[in-house]
Amino acid sequence: MIEDFLHTTLGRTNLAVHRVGLSATYRPGEDTVRRAIDEGLNYFFCFGVDGQMTRALRAEMKGRREKFVVATGAYNLLLGHPNIERSLEKRLRQLGTDYIDVFMYLGVTKEKHFPPELIEKFQRLKEGGRVRFIGLSTHARKFAGRLAAEGLADVLMIRYNAAHRGAEQDIFPFLQPHDPGVTSFTATRWRELIRRPARDKWPQDEPIPTAGQCYRFVLSHPAVHVCLMSPKNAGQFDENLKEIREKGPLGPKEMEFMMKFGDVVHHTKKWFMG
């Protein structure tokens, strides 16, 4: 396949993907999902509660399932493990498909949430044929780095943005030799990277990033295969994709600007996953 700024292979999965993926977390409408398909996006992440995404994909995948890369998974319950087989069955029914491309354990915040016995269960799902590749979404960077180094995940779904660059030390250096796919979320850091900070934190006459710049920051790192976009509506989707396509990777000055602004956001916005 052709590899360029917007097209690549999802690590060792060998799945050809558009580097902009779509999530329906902010309920952008089924028409936005269909618009993304029309614009060439093919990587779609959905939770079980994402009715807009699952309904649109169920209809659009009929007769052309092989053109889509669908990622979903089972939720980490924090106090225990869900029945992942039952979760898989439910996702297959919701999406009207007989296989999931990337089935993940979602919301892993600590290493103990994804113990060896659970990893083995996911491996067995993969061996069963209804899951092509397995992985997890996590904020536990060092754990993700170890999984990458040991080759225990086909795909890692991680947080990476201008305010949270720790993956550059804790994950990216450990991707070889096993080459897992890397997808990222929260490129705008839950919109904090596109909001103006207080006057004492950022000059009021200085620009702030656009959402497009936030996505371009993530996509400018070669370790990231797919950056998930979570627009609120079709207008936001169009605006973001237009900037990504037209401007491509960040130049040195933009990169410096994004890291400087990201540091301000990181040091002024603290929360339990900060």
Which class of secondary structure composition applies to the elements? Answer: alpha/beta
Please report the number of helical segments.
Answer: 9
Low-confidence stretches: none
Over all CA atoms, what is the radius of gyration? 18 Å
The total beta strand count reads: 10
The residue fraction in helices comes out at 25-40%
| Largest β-sheet summary | 8 strands, parallel, barrel
The pLDDT mean sits at: 94
In N-to-C order, the SSE pattern is EEEHEHEHEHEHEHEHEHH
Q: In percent, how much strand structure appears in the residues? A: 15-25%
Biggest sheet: strands side by side, in what order? 3-4-5-6-7-8-9-10
Euclidean distance between termini CA atoms: 38 Å
Q: Which overall shape is indicated by the principal axes computed on the Cα atoms?
A: globular
Write the layout of secondary structure elements.
Layout (H helix, E strand, L loop, with lengths): L6 E3 L6 E3 L1 E4 L6 H9 L4 E3 L5 H10 L8 E7 L8 H12 L4 E9 L7 H12 L3 E8 L2 H10 L4 E5 L7 H4 L10 E5 L25 H9 L6 E4 L4 H14 L4 H17 L6
Parallel strand pairs: 3-4, 3-10, 4-5, 5-6, 6-7, 7-8, 8-9, 9-10
Antiparallel strand pairs: 1-2
Short note summarizing the structure:
This protein has helices spanning 30-38, 51-60, 84-95, 116-127, 141-150, 167-170, 211-219, 234-247, 252-268, and strands at residues 7-9, 16-18, 20-23, 43-45, 69-75, 100-108, 131-138, 155-159, 181-185, 226-229. It is α/β, with parallel strands linked by helices.
Describe this structure in words.
There is one protein chain. The longest helix is centred in the C-terminal third of the chain and has 17 residues, at 252-268. α1 (30-38) crosses α2 and α7 crosses α8 (234-247). With 274 residues, the protein is of the alpha/beta class. It starts with 6 loop residues before the first strand and ends in a 6-residue tail after the last helix. The chain is built from 9 helices and 10 strands. The model has no long low-confidence stretch (mean pLDDT 94).
